[in-house]
Structures are given as C-alpha cells and as structure tokens.
Amino acid sequence: MSKKNVYFFGNKTAEGDPKDKNLFGGKGANLMEMTKIGLNVPPGFIITTEMCNDYYKNGGKLSDPLIKEIKDAVAKVEKSIGKKFGDSEKPLLVSVRSGARVSMPGMMDTVLNLGLNETTLVGLIKAYNNERFVYDSYRRFIQMYSDVVMGMDSDILEHILTDIKKRKGVKLDTELSDTDLKELCILFKNEVKKVMKQDFPENPYEQLTGAIEAVFRSWNNDRAKTYRKMNGYLDEWGTAVTVQSMVFGNMGDDCATGVAFTRNPSTGEHAHYGEFLVNAQGEDVVAGIRTPQPINKASIDPSNPLPTLESIMPAIYKELAGIFDLLEKHYKDMQDIEFTIEKNKLYILQTRNGKRTANAAVNIACDMYDEKLIDDKIAVLRVEPEQVEHLLHPTLDLKAAKISIAKGLPASPGAATGQIVFTAKDAEEWASQGKKVILVRHETSPEDIKGMVAAQGILTALGGMTSHAAVVARGMGKCCVSGCSALHITGKTFKLDNGKTYNEGDVITLDGSTGTVYEGDVPKIKPQLSGNFGRIMTWADKYIRLKTIRLLDPPLHEFLPHLDKEIQEVAKNMDVPVDVLKAKAKALHELNPMLGLRGCRLGITFPEIYKMQVRAIIEAACYLIKNEKMDIVPEIMIPLIGKREELILIKDYSVKEIERVIKKHGVNMKYLIGTMIELPRAAITADKIAEVAEFFSFGTNDLTQTTLGVSRDDAGTFLPEYVEKNIYQVDPFVSIDQEGVGELMKWAIEKGRATRKNIKLGICGEHGGEPRSVIFCHELGLDYVSCSPYRVPVARLAAAHAVLKG
Amino acid sequence: MSKKNVYFFGNKTAEGDPKDKNLFGGKGANLMEMTKIGLNVPPGFIITTEMCNDYYKNGGKLSDPLIKEIKDAVAKVEKSIGKKFGDSEKPLLVSVRSGARVSMPGMMDTVLNLGLNETTLVGLIKAYNNERFVYDSYRRFIQMYSDVVMGMDSDILEHILTDIKKRKGVKLDTELSDTDLKELCILFKNEVKKVMKQDFPENPYEQLTGAIEAVFRSWNNDRAKTYRKMNGYLDEWGTAVTVQSMVFGNMGDDCATGVAFTRNPSTGEHAHYGEFLVNAQGEDVVAGIRTPQPINKASIDPSNPLPTLESIMPAIYKELAGIFDLLEKHYKDMQDIEFTIEKNKLYILQTRNGKRTANAAVNIACDMYDEKLIDDKIAVLRVEPEQVEHLLHPTLDLKAAKISIAKGLPASPGAATGQIVFTAKDAEEWASQGKKVILVRHETSPEDIKGMVAAQGILTALGGMTSHAAVVARGMGKCCVSGCSALHITGKTFKLDNGKTYNEGDVITLDGSTGTVYEGDVPKIKPQLSGNFGRIMTWADKYIRLKTIRLLDPPLHEFLPHLDKEIQEVAKNMDVPVDVLKAKAKALHELNPMLGLRGCRLGITFPEIYKMQVRAIIEAACYLIKNEKMDIVPEIMIPLIGKREELILIKDYSVKEIERVIKKHGVNMKYLIGTMIELPRAAITADKIAEVAEFFSFGTNDLTQTTLGVSRDDAGTFLPEYVEKNIYQVDPFVSIDQEGVGELMKWAIEKGRATRKNIKLGICGEHGGEPRSVIFCHELGLDYVSCSPYRVPVARLAAAHAVLKG
Fold first, then answer.
1. B750 near A CB under 8 A
2. What pTM value is reported for the model?
C-alpha cells in the first residue's frame, strides 16, 4: 500500500490524470477535469477502483492504511472549502457516490448529507435559519444510512413515519411540523439501536467509512451483477468512490442554483441561455413550484419578464459568462452547465455537451465552423442523422394550446390534422371531395394503400414501430401513429379508455414524432431548411464512400391474386386457366405465411409468374434503349433464395426469356441477375450462391426475422419489453442487430467475395435509411444502401459519419 | 496422341485399370472389372473421358488418330465375339453409351443396335428367323439415330408412323405387319434424305463415329449442364463412351435371358434365387407378358411350378452357379446379376450388390459373418438403419388380395386396420367400447392427441411428412398416412376423387410404410425380430461413440391456455387473476405464430410460467433424491434463446427458485441450466450464450425452419416439388440440411467450446432418429442424440455406422 489510492481534487487542481477513467470512474475523472480547467468545483476526493477489489480481498473491510489516506484527504477538503467534519459552526457535509469506468445508472448506492449529527445540526440550523429543513434532512439521512449502510429493513422506519402522521392527523410528510420532525429523529435513532443492536453513528468518520464500504458492497448486489452480465462488463473492473463536499444554494439570498447552456439549445443562437432560483436547491429548479428566472436578457421569456442573474448578481454573472467561454473553448462544443452559488461563491457542479434541437445542431455546427472552433468534418459529426428527419417534416407548435387524448408509438414523423375516416375507401372519397382526412384503422393491410395515399396521416390501434402502417407511412414520408391501444374502434366511431367517443368527421391531429393524438386542429410549424442545412449536407457529401445511396430496389414481386376479378385478370395475362389459378390460390392458406410459399418459391412452383415479370422488365428496358437512347443495365433481383439450386433454375429460365426479348427487339443490352440475401441459409452458403448470382442485395428485414426467429408483425407482444429490459438495446427491425444479423452479413460478404471477387453488394430495405445501420453497412464495405426517398438525407449524413468516425 | 485413348475389354481381360473411374467412367470401369474377374462379358471398348475434352478442342470432331484407334478396337471386338461389322452372315451390332465418373441418369444420349443396315438385315433375319422383329428394330434404329445423332426433329418420323397406322386402319405399333414395317423403313430413310439433305448412313463405321460424337455432344446439352450445376459436378470431367457388342437372348431355343440373386433377397436364405425366359430379350422378363421360369429348385413358386434352368440347360446353370460363388467371394456381398444366353453361350451383362428386405439384410450379414466372408464391422454396415424401422412394425401380407383406394404420404411406418371415425372424441369413445378405429382428419392439432392415442392409425387429407399428425404418430410409433389429397371430408363421411364414399364405421387399412389406404381388413404380418437382429445390434453397440442415445428431452413447456376452463385452472395454480391471464391470451393472436411469443419469450414476458415449471422439476427431483435415494442431476433446458441476455434473466430467476426449493427440502443436489440452440442467432452468438449455458441441445427442427425460412407446416405447398426437382436431395425436416443448418451447427459448436471447453452437446428432435442425421451428429462430435423411443434401434445402428464409416 505504498501506492497512492486516494486522490484529492479542489482549488483548481487535481492529484490524478482525468484521462484515467478506469482508475477513477467516469464521474470522478470528470470532476478532476473540470477542476483542472480552473472551475470552482466543490472539493472532494476519489478512492480508486483498485480499492474496490482490495476491499473484497481484505474480507469486506477498508484496510487501516486506506482509512489513513481517506482521513488525510478529508483534511485537504476541509482546508479547501473552509468547513470541518463534525464542526458545530461550519460543518462539512459530503456526498458519497459510486462511479465505475462506465455508467451504470441506478445500480449502486449513494449517500447524501453525510456528516449530519447532533453537533453539526446546531451549526446548520444557525446557517439555514430553518429548523424544519435541517431536521427533515436529518431524518432522511437516518433513513437512507440505516437502509443503505447498516442494512436495516427500510419498512421499519417507514412504519414509524406512518404512525406519527396518523397520530398528528396529517397525510403528507410536508405537513409535519419542525417539532414533529425533531421527535421523529429521536424515534428513528432509538429504533435503529433496538433493531440493529448498535447506536446510529454520531462520528462523521465512522459514518464515512461505513458509507464507502456500502458503495463497494453495492458493486456486487444482484442488480449490478445482472446489469454487468447483460452488458458484458467485467466484475474485476470495480467501482471507484467519489466523496465530495456538499454546497447549498438555499442558505439565504446570497445563494442560488441554476442550469445554463453556452448557446441557445432550441435555435442555436450564439448567446448564453439559462435559468436560476435564488435561495433554492437544485431540485427546486426542476420541480416547477417556483418559476425560475432568466440568467440574462437573451433568456428572458417576453410573456413573463423576470429579473435576470445578470442584474441581481452582476459579478457572479460575469464570472459565469467567463466560464461559459472557457468551457466552449475547452470542449469545442455547446455546454450544459449546473451551478450553485453558496454565500456569493460560485460552484460548478457539472458540465456536459448540451442537448439541442435539430435546427440548433445545424446552426451551432455552422457557426462554430465559421468561428474556426471546429472543421467541416466535426461540423458534420455534430448533426445526428436521426435528428435530420425532424427538419424534413412539419412539427406541432410547442406553444399552441392542445388537448392530448391518446398516446401511441411515434411510427412515422411529422404532424397532420384531418377529419376521421375509418376505411380506405372513405379516405379516398372524402379526399377526392377536397377534404383532409386521418385514416383510423385497427391495423392496415396492402388493400389500404390507396386510402393511405389519400389521407394526411394514419392512426392505428394495433401494430408496432414496424407494422405495415408504420413501414408504408415512413416509405411515403407520411405522419403515422401506430399501436394506440387506448383506441376502441367499433364501426365508424372510436372510444377512448376514458369513455369519450369520436365519430367519423371529427377533427384530430397526430404528432408522428412523439406518438401523441390531439383533439381538433393544432397549429403546426412548417419545416424550415436553412442555408446551414445545405452547407452541412455539402460537407457530408465530400466524405461519403458508400456509392450513390439508392432508392429502394424492388425485388421480383411476390403476389398471388385473391379476389375473383384479380384472378381472372391474372389468369388471362398469364394464359393459365382460371380454375388452375383458383385452385392454386386456395391451396395456399398458411399457418406461418412468412415462412411459406413466397419469394423465389413462387418462381419455382409457378415459373410463369416470374417469366412474365422478367419479360416486363426487359421489354421496358429495350423500349428505353431503342426509343429513348438510354444507357441501361437492368438488374434482376431474385428474392428469398435459400439454396444455389433455386437460383440456377430461375436464372436459367430467366436468361432464356431475356435473350428472347432482346433478340426480338434487336438491341444490344447488358443485364445482371442477382439475389437478395434474406435467409440465414443464403448467407451461410453465400460462396455457393455467388457462383450463380452477379450481385447480392441484403434484405435485412427478412434476414432479421429469420435469424432472430421473430416475426415483425407479431413482435409487438414482446419486443418492446425486450428493449425495455435491455435484452436488445434497440428494436432490431429499426436498427440492424449487428451482433447476430450483422455477423451473418459479414460471413456472407466474405464467402461471396471468395467466389466472385467483385460481387456487387448492397442492402435493400428500411434499415438502409437508419443511421447506425448505414454506418454498419459502410464498415462492412457494402457498395450501396437503399432507402425510401424521404430518408435519403438521413442516409447521406449517416454515410458521412461512417467515414468520419471510421 | 501417342497415349492410349481406347481400351478394349473381352476374353476375360481388359486393357485398363478398373479402379480408374475418372478415366473410364463408372459404367466402363465396371465392365472392365467383371471381365477381369473372369466373367464372360460381351466384348467392347471404352473411349476415355479425356477424349471428350479432346473432341471439343478439335472443333467438335473426332481426330483422325482417334478414329484409327477406334477401328483397331472394333477389330479386337470382332475377333473376340466372332461377328463382323457390316457382315451379312454374322453381323456385329453394338450399343454406344455415355459414362461419366458419376452417374447422371437419363441426362445423356445412348444409341442401340448400331450396325444395322440393308446388308446386315439379311444376316439377322436368317439368324432370328423373324422378319417382323428385325424390321421393327431397324425402323426404331433409324428413328433413334436420326434424332440423337443427325439432330432431325423426331416429330417428322413420328408423323409418318401415325400416317401409316391410319392408312392401315390400326391403332398400335404392334399391329403393323412385317410388310408395313419394311415399307416404313423405306419411307423413313427417304424422309431423312429429304429433310437432312443427306443419306441415312449405311456404313457401320460412319454410324459409329457419328454416335460417339453425339454422346460427346450430349455432355453439353442443357439438361446435362443444369444437372451438373445442381450437383456441383465439373464441366471438365467429360464423359467416356462405352461401345459394347450386343448379344441376343431371342435368337432361338438355345437362347435365354434372366436375372438372379446369389442369395434369396427377401428371406436372406443362402440359396441362389432367380428367373429367366427362353428365347427372349431382357425387357421381356420385366414386361410380364410371359411368366418367367425359376432358375433352380430354390426359386420355384409352389403355386406355379415351372421347369427350371437347372433342368433345361444343366451345363449353363452349373456355369452360372460357379459365377455366383466367384462374384460373392470377389465382392463379399450378395449380388444381383443380369445374364443372357446366346446360342448356348452365357454372357454376364451386369452385376451389382443386390437390394434386399430388412430381414434378408440381417440374415445375410450374420450368415456371411459366420462364413468368415466379412467381419462384425462390415456386418453392421450391411444393415441400413433406415431398414431397421421396417423390422419393428407390422407389415401388410404382400400375398393378400387387397383393394387400394387412395395414396398419401408414408408418414409413420407400420400397418393398421380399424373403423373410420372423424373426431378425436369419437376415437376415444369408440376405443373405450373396445372398437378398433382409424382417426381420419383434415389435419391434426394438439387437441387431437388423446384421440390419436386411442386410434390404431391416423389418416389425414392435408399435411406433409413432417406435419403434426406425422410427427406425433412417429413419436408414438403409430401408423400414419398423411397428405392424402384424394380424400374429401364432409361431416362424418369422406369421398374419393372417383366419387366413392366411405362413412363413419366403415373399415379401412393403412400401410404407413408406403402411404397406401386399402378398403376393408387386409391381413398383416407381425414384426419378427430374429436372433440375428440381436446379434447385429450387439455388434453395433460395440462401436458406438455417441453416448447413451437419449429419449426425447422436453424443453420447458410452451403453452398458453386457450379454453376458459384451462385459463381458470392455470390462473389458480399460478396465483394470477383470471382476467389478467385472459387478457394476455387474447392479446396473443399472431400472424406467424412460429416467429411469435413462444419459448423463452414467454419466460421473459410472463416469468411465473417458467418459475412454476422449474419448481415442479426441482420438487420432483428433490422427492426422488430424498425418498427414492436416487442420484439425479436435473437439467433445465431453456428453449428458443436468441440472445445471451434472455438466458441471463431466466437463469437468474430460475436459480433463485431452485435454491429455494433445494433449501426447503434440505437435500444436496447438483443441477445444470442450458439452452436449446434452435435459432440462427443463437448459433451465431454461441460463444456468448455459452458464457451462461452449461449445455447446448440443438433443436434442429426449429433451427431448420428459421435457417431455411420454411415453416414445416406450410412447406407442403412447395417442398415436395423442391425435393423432386433436386433442389433439396431430401426433405430437410426428415434429414438435417448439412450444408446450411449443419454449417451453423458446426459454427455453434466451435464457438460454444471456445467459451466453455467441455460444454455438453446434443440434439433434441426428430432428426435424432434419422440415420444420416445421426451420422452427421457423430461427425460434429456431439455427446448425444435424442429421439422418440420407437426409433432408438435406428439411431443406435446409425451411430455405429457413423463410427465404422468414419
């Protein structure tokens, strides 16, 4: 133990290297960095992650040399902040928190207000001039400490609290008087002694070592162990412990607490922006009981112009503004800062890159480029591809009054208002009369397409983010809310869970970006694409490697006609007896249609269907070459191939059809015949399939369904829970499952190229417009991605990110 | 061309090495081998496969040196057999056949009776004393040759044949007189000259080179090229050409033709067995117009005792019997021999290992072991695991009269007779009254199980070899015919395609080994397991490496109750409100249930189900350990895992349940928690899953469904066609698809072992009782296979084959 194990930070200096997150944990390293930049961070110290392992090796106790080091560090903190542990005048209180090298939110234990005891109470009551607040803090500290550190069943003290409220005839904790709370503290401490057979610790050092041991112990609680297993984190990493002095923004009118951004997070305007409360705790700003005040003119709400920090505490504001500039220069990004003012002294509690709207992201990136803070590469990376989608669709006016009536899934972004209709046919008819309509359905099916085109937006009671309605709506760039389970549709009316009924013709508004349904017409803001957006996209295009992002490639069509009329029509076109076709269609009732007679299987059992389609494609290509003098190389894409032999059979007859058409037209035309890779078997045997296929187009939607054994349409019953429980970090139908499906894609690419070196590779389907998937495709070395036209800017930006991050 | 390219065989000698199949083709090599053993094979010669490539290099013509070699070889054949090409007295006729290194049946061309012309006709007519037969042969030769060699449209001569039949007022070819056929030959040759602008070749050498070129050409016809592509055969292998003198068993009463086995193929009795016809061609024996005679006493049919070859031609029979012994000693297996006697001279045309019944296979193997012809390893290999199944079930008496009324799929072997019932309930009721019933259904579902148990056999109109009915029946060892599409069921009656109707209570008989349905009660032969069967199984067990073949392991049960009664019962057991359970069940309507909420997904969304099952298993185990003093290590098998995280969550709560039960009973018990690998994603990420799973059990049924993207229940609409078209050589639900699913298994095993070196591996499901799959599992190094109890002997034998073949 000759090594240093406890690292002090404070007074603009820190004993450790802020880069060493493995040793100090993410949170601790961060505090060190802020301190070193020169910010006034409440002083404290870090006990390293190595000491966590040491604690276990030492039989679940802190070693004596470590306790010695901790005491030395406490002394440094006391000196730095001018308060003392256990002091009756200026008592030092600290927080004790866990901090692993990666964030494990809520998994481990925390103790606040440590250092409170009968002695320090006195000093605090004097400082706050608020007995009630101090006793309330003390009884909370006893509850937290006895539970977390001493391991006492928390229900026991909870019962005493309930009892005293009954006795006093009150319902809420806040209704208890200062005398009640004082009595409660005594009752609590007596009960602890009775149950735990030991006094509640008065000595702050004893409190401290107990709390540190508890944090180390919590590294191995069930929750944390499961979380680590789920995320592949190792047990031996251990947690660091951060002990930091507490500062208070609620010790009088020379105190305050606030949050601020270095630039406007909603517009991107280059002006500091934030709010604060005088004589308040951090949680008061969030709680919304008191209205926060603006920090400066730029932050004033014109409808409620309150005094600014700049006007109340000009010196402090000036200091804060200087810190803003310092932080922006240091982090080269807009910062989100938490601060507390304790008796006219400014403390910075936290800084991090600020969240911002899409619009702000674009403007800030361009401004910082112009200010030479960042280059064009960083500027491109500063705009998240996911955000771009919001720039392309109308959004609801945040300030407008609105009555939210139900909540579904944000299936396709944008906002839309219209009269309710319940059938696709009505949607078409009403729209043809010039009415704006919202199509409301249990779920949609291919028969509803025309109605979906005619409607302003689509609302469904069933179906997930990747249901038919959601997928088609996104493909059309049309607003959609799906899976709105509060909707009970009967005939041409729907009822909400609360009993309220809406009829055909009633007006509603959908917000497809949040999944909210509103009554009546809610004002909207049209999408505004500024010149800055164009600048970002131009920079992005400079760096893209994935060639010519394509519009969705349709594979050979999968269909069998169902209606009598359709059957007759198709039979005529195909020169096949109607009876034969009918019998075939009837025989096709399937239990699991996803795994049934579709894709190339139709091309095997019923070759005329494919021959007809191939002829149509080639006839069209010949026409364009002959009459429009276009230079075309048609690509025939065969879906759902599982075995090389299927492709051989279909390619053989397709080539015959193609050559016949080409010969008939006497044109000179090249063409390619390839396959979709959308079954695991195709990926596994890609080397064999590449002997026949001239290109691969990954159908990642079907590939996901079969690899995971999950039907997209049925996943609604469990997949949301899977994502919620972190089994999947993200819906694998939204973003490619890289560990499973992605691994199979890698395999297929490797094998495909082994057989056919220059085989053309791409993906076809919704994933092609999803940023993480686009980046993954880039990493795999695909030649192109395909996506719906409405997602092309998203895909372009993601493709640039892929290069710039790579 | 200094190398030898044409190899003569005849006179008990052959110029080439019979082992060189790549050079001589399979057929040619075989003829050489028989000749070298000392059999009197009709002489001939082989043109090597290398000459096929040479033919193409030479611009599609035989080179002059090659023609010279061919002529020399013809001379050797002439000398050997004492006939001459183009001779008017003793004309030599030959067959010209293709022969690649592997069999490509029906893909390439053959020419028979080559050498026929105006001159040789004369000699043949004299020899046969049958003008009609010779002219019929000649007109057939002209048709075949003009089509295959000269490339003339075969319809043209077919029209002339139709015309002459019309003109003569007859319907069949066989009704034409010898004069008609003579006229036809003239008309044919004139037409060939008119259309092809060249004479039909008279010169036998010209005929021969033309035919050889045609065989080489046929190597590259479309059919053959597609076949090669489908089977992965290389174009450059080429075909050899076999030219062999034709011998005739129909030149008088000193001629005959026959087929024989060296032992009885139906009982295995060690006695020669066969039949022949005097003055006949080989095809006459098969055609069934004349009744063949037995070759010896052992072959006599007691109900129709005809004179034997032994009595008619004693010297020839003696020679033949000697050849039988020679061949058995050489090939060390029972032989199936084709022979022809031309003018008292015996020719052997072909020998191959004889097909035999299961019973014969067992007896022959044991006899040959006792005769020291083979050792016990070979004896085991001589009984095909597939055959063993037939020994375990009753079979229909082949000799009994029977009326076949419909044909379905041979879904589960055995034979059964009973009265028709149409519902599972009726099956139970009738059976409880002591009646034997056959359950007839459109298709079966889990609700029918009790009725299936009660019935003698099951007959379904829908569903394939792997439908519910088929799988369950095989599991029960019960006879089943599935997919009998001729059945039209309405209420309690079914109608056949031919209109005939059968009602409830009518008696039918099923043959589950052939898929045939018979009217009434057909006599059956009970399975007879001889002592020899026991000897074979004992030998097999000596060599098995796959440990203790297991009975089917059930994974944690997948169910949600459907009926009100069930729901109430389950809700009570689980201590969950009925409403909650009902709502859950209702929400589970699925489009693709195979890919929906099942397996471990239920264990995630509804943990109580699994907890209850785990408790039940462990309670049972504790009971057996405490009260029965049994030594048990229960294995908990989690189905449908796709991601490690699922297993972590379920294992975590299962371990808690288990430990609680163990503690309650105070027993000392080990247990294992593992997973089924039945999704591609599980196989792909097996390294990660093995961090948590203590064993893997491959669920190859589901793994096949998801890897191939084929639902077993729906595959009936296309999979039979896939097998027929050779896309799959065998139904992948019957035998593991080694190229696709098998590759994934290999990957999973490799990855699983990388993480957990000694992970226990097995398969669970129907494939575990299928011989090829068992062998594959052995090759993969699995620890065990599981199968239904009725297939255990099959699996044992297959496991021994795996070792002995490996």
1. no
2. 0.75
